[in-house]
């Protein structure tokens, strides 16, 4: 017999409580305050979540509010893939939820017996997703980087992901052994034509899945905080209209790639415009809303994994 509306609502509450407890790591007292219920009710909801197997190692019950937001995003932006996870009221910038769902996407792709190519961007959300992927032997698969991972001072990015995922899968992997930015456009053009680099690019262009992060272009832009662009380079891109970046490629409020600035010297694989390969962005947080919305409007990505607070802000 199909569950009643009241039973569905109760399961939604139980799934939300289970997510806050098992994934976001909150205590039952904290969950009670967030859900505005008593501690005893919070405890019962967590127990119900376990009893109904709504959560094992991952959230298995799709919360109705999240499903509705995902459906609206899919319709508005013509997405081929969209997942919305519960928001963590105590940590609105936490990427735990989107990392868990992104890891699930990676695992479902990598479980294929036939060879697949997974292309990865960089950043905190993508790195967190890779860390959650369960080990699986897939030596016939290929993992390829979309972005140069060396900063101006010669150091490698802490958020490099390709080697980490290769460790978990035994897959052949292709890092992008280039500085994030070259000193000039001519130097960039020469470097990307070098044989091994051209081969990495060719592998990336055949990818079955691209998983990328989205960065905002403001004074807290990750590409600046992590040392890949200088303050002056960041401000130049902002003057040119940049609101966001994907693998370093800056774009404006309509999702159009900026024609000047650091985009002329960037070694990363350019986004497909419009995205044809399954290209999923994992991004969360109000500071990124303008960047996410522009990427969706410009068809730089055709899929999104985000949380419900960010989803509502994008749809407003």
What overall geometry do the principal axes of the alpha carbons give? globular
Strand tally, please?
10
Domain unit count: 2
Beta content: 5-15%
Count of DSSP H/I helices: 13
Order of helices and strands: HHHHEHEHEHEHHEEHHEEEHEH
What percentage of residues falls in helices of 4 or more residues?
A: 40-55%
Class derived from helix and strand content: alpha/beta
Gyration radius, rounded: 20 Å
Stretches where pLDDT is under 50 for at least 5 consecutive residues are: none
How would you describe this protein?
It is built from 13 helices and ten strands. Helix 2 crosses helix 3 and helix 12 packs across helix 13 (308-315). The longest helix has 19 residues, at 5-23. Helix 6 (124-131) links the parallel strand 2 (117-120) and strand 3. By secondary structure, it is α/β, with parallel strands linked by helices. The mean pLDDT is 91. It has two domains: 5-51, Arc Repressor Mutant, subunit A (Orthogonal Bundle), CATH 1.10.10; 65-315, Rossmann fold, CATH 3.40.50.
Any chance you could write out the topology, listing elements then pairs?
Blueprint: H1 5-23, H2 28-35, H3 39-51, H4 64-77, E1 81-85, H5 96-110, E2 117-120, H6 124-131, E3 142-145, H7 162-169, E4 172-174, H8 185-191, H9 195-205, E5 209-213, E6 215-216, H10 222-225, H11 231-239, E7 244-246, E8 249-251, E9 278-282, H12 289-297, E10 303-307, H13 308-315
Parallel strand pairs: 1-10, 2-3, 2-5, 3-4, 5-9, 9-10
Antiparallel strand pairs: 6-7, 7-8
Helix pairs in contact: 1-3, 2-3, 4-13, 5-6, 12-13
